[in-house]
Design goal:
27 strands; twelve-stranded parallel sheet; 337 residues; single chain; eight-stranded parallel sheet; mainly beta; Pectate Lyase C-like
Length: 337
């Protein structure tokens, strides 16, 4: 690419760095000094026109930070970050302007629009959507790698919108929308200042957490979030015997039904091992007086383990934005694109 284009890209990166300052505390204390810069631009003024092409250009077993800058546009493609390509960041500048979309349904591991299998992945300011529609499993985002973080993203579908599959994950200021089990899986995840919007018109569950054993240190933790809906919904139902979901300082509108949770056909004996709780939540939907008897209104002592990101060891891996960028050396095959 010509030098002028590269300099223009650096201007956009400076804008990104400015936005990242507001999230500095959320991004942890690990400092990232430099990253390889790759630009995706549908107009042909970047290094690649497709996001998947940019990912494919990263070497297997990559050990360097790679920052894939995606220019505004609607990218109709199915994207996968394979397990052998860690340390990748994919970033737009505004989620509403950078849309990754596909239309697929069926198997939850095959239908996702965007799949993250690698560790140490970061997604920023992206809309990730599956437009297949209601009534079937249609995953927008699958996260199966360890140490993954998402900032300011919009994740949209109906059933199983976010397959939060396995690993330690962090979501900050994200908007997540769906109608049935739209945050599901068995990851250990901390959702901070996220907006959960239910499209359910009955008793659709927001979460379906799949913790299967008390030995598994997994669960969904929602801190300072907001829940809205088009009609009515429940907070969750147990996909796993030891399913664990906790809401803290979360605003719940009247979209949340008084019972709060659904038993998914489990007996009272089976539900004894489920851990569903809330602490100091607000809004008409947060009232606990009519909650199911196996839900917990947590005390200050009980909630303490869920008040920080220590449950996902965040200080060990959440990293701040790079402070400098270097151009990726293009191969002969790259220059033909």
């Amino acid at each position: 690419m010509v030098r002028g284009t590269f300099m223009m890209n650096l201007v956009f990166i400076a804008l990104y760095a400015f936005m990242a300052i507001s999230n500095s505390q959320a991004e942890g204390t690990n400092t990232s000094t430099s990253a390889i810069l790759i630009t995706v631009d549908q107009s042909g003024k970047g290094d690649y026109k497709k996001i998947q092409e940019a990912i494919d250009s990263v070497a297997s077993n990559n050990a360097e930070l790679v920052f894939i800058r995606v220019k505004p546009g609607v990218y109709e493609e199915k994207v996968m970050v394979p397990a052998d390509k860690p340390f990748i960041t994919i970033s737009g500048t505004k989620a509403a302007d950078t849309v990754i979309t596909w239309n697929d349904s069926g198997d939850i591991f095959e239908s996702p629009t965007f799949s993250v299998l690698a560790s140490d992945f970061i997604g920023r300011y992206l809309t990730i959507q599956n437009t297949y529609g209601a009534g079937v499993k249609a995953v927008a985002l699958r996260v199966s790698g360890d140490r993954a973080a998402f900032y300011g993203c919009r994740i949209l579908s109906h059933q199983d919108t976010l397959l939060d599959d396995t690993g330690r994950h962090y979501y900050n200021n994200c908007y997540i929308e769906g109608d049935v089990d739209f945050i599901c899986g068995n990851a250990a995840s901390f959702f901070e200042k996220c907006h959960l919007h239910s499209l359910s018109v009955g008793t659709g569950a927001i979460t379906a957490q799949r913790r299967m054993s008390p030995a598994e240190d997994t669960g969904f933790m929602f801190f300072g979030c907001k829940i809205t809906g088009v009609k009515t919904a429940v907070l969750g139902r147990p996909w796993g015997t030891y399913s664990r979901v906790v809401f803290v300082f979360t605003y719940m509108t009247s979209a949340i039904l008084p019972q709060g949770w659904d038993d998914w056909g489990n007996s009272a004996d089976q539900l004894r091992t489920v851990y569903y709780g809330q602490y100091k939540c607000s809004g008409r939907g947060a009232t606990t007086s009519k909650r199911v008897e196996w839900a917990r209104d947590l005390t200050s002592e009980e909630v303490e383990p869920f008040l920080t990101k220590d449950m996902i060891d965040a200080n060990a891996w959440l990293r701040s934005a790079p402070t400098s960028f270097k151009k990726k050396a293009l191969s002969a095959n790259d220059t033909k694109n």
